[in-house]
Write a structure and sequence with these properties.
Helix content is about 35%, strand content about 20%. The protein is of the alpha+beta class. Strands 1, 2, 3, 4 and 7 form a 5-stranded mixed sheet that branches. A 5-stranded antiparallel sheet has the order 9-8-18-17-16, with helices on both faces. β1 and β2 form a beta hairpin. The longest helix is centred in the first third of the chain and has 32 residues. The chain is elongated and about 130 Å long. The chain starts with 12 loop residues before the first helix and ends in a 5-residue tail after the last strand.
Length: about 575
């Protein structure tokens, strides 16, 4: 049997070289396709920016995820939305100029020239546009430009828009806090729910915030004011239930916010609050024991101190009892009362004790230091007693009133919800008797004095009016015809729980106020309307006759002829029954 053995012909050198070239080309194509495939997978299916490190220029950045912010009842104030953003890898774009022109035509607000410069400056990564709409996303997909893709980015959104803007604040494009709680609590917020972060619960009650915003905004518009503030503080827990500053802004569109709109006038601006300070000056004088509710002071003529003359806006031109000094808001009587209690040193010490001589403390960065006199001459002491020569934030003043018109103790104010059973630290500032006397004086002011327009049929409100000449921020001194009008109220005054303050910056009187801009005409009715609406929401019971009788029982009323005016007037005195 014969076996046929195949013979091998030597390969053609040309064929061998061709085969080698084909293998090399095939390998190159395989590597290229693998590279492009991996890149496409990374672009289309890859990590979210919340998990990925590249940002502009491919740098590593902070985790953009943030925990939610809610009000005390769990209502959402700030949260995250995942929205597509367009990015580009310039190294994969065949024609940068043409690509930039086409992208600019598909995306609103993108300038082709600026995009070209950014793409040329970047190496492997550049954002084209953050947060595009579904229509824009479809348009970019339709262009089919190599090297252009999408990534879901975290967008911080504020569903309540302007309502809580000054408290909550806002973030930048990288979700880093820039103002308010967003800035101050950055460390607590970053990481979001994915990192086990619980929502940050604020002390604000959205229902109360809405009511205060509505009423203050109405007065702000009606009286054509330059600014306005509304505050509601729970004096027992120290929780701020509402904090409103106008004008305001939409944190979803910070780029449209004005400089004035971003100012937090409640905590970040200082004001001379005028006669509101008489609450504190009288409390100081009574607490020293050198002045009593039975004392009287001569307000027959203006008070001369050196070259300065102090007058009363509502001059009675007679001796005034302590209750009359307060209810008629006498500058002369208040100054004399402070001097009778010791003058500058005890007044300064008291202002320091109630927190008016230093920067306030709160969980937001927008906090202003008080503007204090450099020298406390007798004239300065007198004017500071009735709220001039010293400027503080509305928050500081509400904090001080909460103590001296409450039970005499202070709880530090907070924008964070207290935990159930939490016992905040309390510090006594005045005696319980002084606090009781101050409450009675505030009730009297609303019942018969300058604050009668704050009366409410359902709740007993105690309060104090304030009208201060407005300081000229450029030249110093005071602006002629411009005022800060305000009213601070405590309710229910028979069992004080809530402090409500409204301040209007340079209001203009209208027909219903007879052109008057005093705090008693412009701000007091706003506090009344706020109280009438928030009382039922907070579960405050309507007052009964017995509650008011306890105040009336200490009221002594008589009539006599005033020697200087020859008019028969009502005289008010305090009856210290049961003491």
């Amino acid at each position: 049997m014969r076996f046929l053995v195949p013979t091998t012909r030597p390969a053609d050198p040309v064929v061998q070289a061709g085969r080698k070239r084909l293998r090399v080309v095939a390998l190159c194509f395989a590597m290229a396709f693998a590279s492009v495939g991996l890149r496409l997978v990374d672009m289309v299916v890859g990590k979210d920016p919340a998990e990925a490190s590249p940002r502009i220029a491919g740098e590593a950045g902070p985790d953009p995820r943030r925990a939610d912010i809610v009000d005390r009842n769990g209502e959402l104030l700030a949260t995250n939305l995942r929205v597509p953003s367009v990015f580009a890898d310039p190294s994969l774009i065949p024609d940068i100029d043409r690509a930039a022109d086409r992208l600019a035509s598909a995306l609103v607000g993108i300038d082709a020239g600026d995009l070209k410069r950014r793409l040329r400056a970047a190496k492997r990564f550049a954002w084209v546009k953050h947060e595009v709409t579904p229509l824009e996303q479809a348009a970019v997909l339709g262009l089919g430009i190599p090297g252009v893709g999408f990534r879901n980015t975290e967008k911080r959104v504020y569903p309540r828009e302007r309502l809580t803007s000054h408290v909550v604040g806002f973030t930048d494009l990288d979700n880093q806090g820039l103002a308010g709680i967003e800035y101050a609590m950055q460390d607590r917020l970053v990481g979001g729910a994915a990192a086990g972060k619980e929502p940050v619960a604020l002390s604000l009650d959205l229902r109360i915030q809405q009511i205060v915003h509505d009423e203050v905004a109405s007065a702000f518009t009606r009286f054509r004011a330059q600014g306005a503030v509304g505050i509601v503080l729970d004096r027992v827990t120290g929780e701020l239930l509402s904090l409103v500053s106008l004008p305001d802004f939409d944190p979803n569109r910070v780029d449209r916010a004005t400089v004035e709109g971003r100012k937090n006038r409640a905590t970040g601006n200082t004001y001379e609050l005028g006669s509101l300070f008489k609450i504190l000056s009288v409390a100081m004088a009574l607490d020293t024991g050198k002045v009593s509710m039975a004392d009287s002071f001569d307000a027959t003529v203006p008070l001369r101190i050196g070259r300065h003359t102090i007058r009363d806006d509502h001059a009675k031109r007679r001796w005034l009892s302590v209750p009359e000094v307060f209810m008629y808001s006498s500058n002369i009587g208040t100054a004399k009362m402070v001097f009778a209690a010791g003058g500058a040193d005890p007044l300064k010490g008291f202002f320091d004790r109630v927190g008016l001589m230093s920067k306030p403390s709160l969980e937001i960065p927008e906090l202003a230091r008080p503007q204090l006199p450099k020298r406390w001459a007798d004239s300065t002491t007198a004017t500071a007693a009735f709220g001039h020569s010293i400027a503080v934030t509305p928050l500081q003043f509400v904090d001080a009133v909460a103590a001296v018109a409450g039970d005499g103790t202070r709880v530090p104010p907070t924008l964070l919800r207290r935990q159930p059973g939490e016992q905040p630290e309390r510090r006594r500032l005045v005696s319980a008797r002084t606090a009781e006397d101050v409450r009675w004086l505030m009730w009297l002011t609303v019942a018969k004095g300058t604050g009668t327009r704050a009366k409410d049929p359902a709740y007993l409100i105690g309060g104090k009016t304030g009208t201060a000449d407005k300081v000229d921020p450029v030249r110093g001194g005071y602006l002629r015809g411009s005022v800060i009008a305000s009213f601070v109220g405590v309710f229910p005054i028979e069992a004080p729980r809530y402090v409500v303050m409204v301040m209007l910056d340079d209001p203009r009187g209208d027909g219903t106020t007879y052109g008057l801009r005093y705090g008693g005409w412009t701000a007091a009715p706003v506090v009344r309307d706020i109280v009438s609406r928030i009382g039922p929401v907070l579960g405050v019971s309507r007052y009964d006759a017995a509650a008011e009788e306890r105040f009336v029982d200490r009221l002594g009323v008589s009539k006599s002829v005033v020697a200087k005016t020859q008019r028969k007037e009502e005289r008010i005195a305090f009856i210290a029954a049961g003491r």
